[in-house]
TrEMBL record:
Segments passing through the bilayer: none
Species this protein is from: Paucimonas lemoignei
One GO CC annotation: cytoplasm
Cofactor binding note of this UniProt entry: Binds 1 [4Fe-4S] cluster per subunit.
Similarity section: Belongs to the PAPS reductase family. CysH subfamily.
Residue numbers binding [4Fe-4S] cluster: 114-115, 197, 200
Protein name in UniProt: Adenosine 5'-phosphosulfate reductase
Length: 249
């Protein structure tokens, strides 16, 4: 067996062990799934052995149809209904009435306000009463995730946050998907390594950063949703007690 194979199998075993520990020590816990490739790896690892970890997605009202169709594919493959959390209708209507449907292109503040309404507030509802949440974030995805840890204290939400794929490479993700026949969003085959809301995501060119297609009109250091803001500020705390800059996807 090659070193590469040994390392991959160790990575998979470590990740399964992390999810097993979450299931036994941190119930109720939930996976915040963007329905992209990393979250499909975790979905497979949770649902195949029947781990008691819930799975939800933020249905922002601006997702690609291909992304929404993943909810049905998960149901067909695993007989599991992903829970959908939607933004408050009144808040969306007020934002659109005051600023326009696509005002997020106008400024970083307008974009963050749209993310707050469509993602941050629904996320807070989805996490209410949970002991831990799980994301598919990887350290290699971008500079804003360079300090990501497998386990972090999420002070903003008052719980533990797990990033079981923190050490995974993109190749590891696709190797797992291929070897385990995991369903995945077809947009990944069309140049979208990172998938968010439709108007805020575009395909990338070969050699571009994985998250270059997200909020492409902004500077790289503003490209997060604010899902881990503390008192309105991006927070970075070192080592295990760590709330990083970041988002679900
Ligand atoms: S990603 Fe774009 S459309 Fe989606 S919530 Fe954020 S600003 Fe709004």
């Amino acid at each position: 067996m090659s070193d590469n194979q040994v390392n991959f199998e160790r990575l998979v075993a470590d990740t399964r062990a992390t999810l097993g520990r979450i299931a036994t020590e941190f119930t109720p816990a939930v996976l915040a799934s963007s329905l992209a490739a990393e979250d499909m790896v975790l979905t497979d690892m949770i649902l195949r052995p029947g781990l008691p970890i819930g799975i939800f997605t933020l249905e922002t009202g601006r997702l690609h149809k291909e992304t929404l169709q993943m909810v049905e594919r998960i149901k067909q493959t695993y007989a599991y209904d992903v829970e959908l959390f939607k933004p408050e209708t009144e808040a969306v209507d007020a934002y659109v009435k005051a600023n326009g449907l696509n005002a997020f292109y106008d400024s970083v503040d307008m974009r963050k306000e749209c993310c707050r309404i469509r993602k941050v507030e629904p996320l807070n509802r989805a996490l209410a009463g949970k002991k831990a949440w799980v994301t598919g974030q990887r350290r290699a995805q971008s500079t804003t995730r360079a300090e990501l840890h497998v386990q972090e204290d999420d002070a903003a939400h008052g719980m533990v946050k797990f990033n079981p794929l923190a050490d995974w490479s993109e190749d590891d993700v696709w190797r797992y998907i291929r070897e385990n026949d995991v369903p995945y969003n077809p947009l990944h085959d069309k140049g979208y390594p990172s998938i968010g809301c439709e108007p805020c995501t575009r395909a990338i060119q070969p050699g571009e950063d994985i998250r270059a297609g997200r909020w492409w009109w902004e500077n790289a250091d503003t490209k997060e949703c604010g899902l881990h803001l503390v008192d309105g500020k991006l927070v970075r705390i070192s080592a295990k007690a760590n709330v990083t800059e970041g988002n679900v996807k």
